[in-house]
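Notes from hallway chat w/ T.B., transcribed later so I don't forget. T.B. wanted the structure written out for a chain they're using in a teaching module, and asked if we could keep both sequence and structure tokens in one place. Agreed to drop them here.
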Amino acid sequence: MERQGKRAVFADEAVRRAEQIVNGLSYRSPVLVAVSVLMASKLKLTCVQIGQVLGVGKATVVRMNQAFRDEPESDKKNWGGRRR
């Protein structure tokens, strides 16, 4: 079993600064979506808990996770448009 280390302690100002950074991100931000997926899979948090940490609603967390699941593996985008 892994030993527990000391818990990280942050000053109130550092926590406020971190909250401002997270609140400044769009809910479509790839970083925010990736963090949401990792919190669900690694920490086994619920959508409500993830939403509280990220500052978004439960429904937004569900949409972000669903969009991540449905996203194709490749970075190739659909070209769209008419071709002759």
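Follow-up for T.B.: Helices lie at 12-24, 30-42, 47-54, 58-70. Might be a good example for the class.
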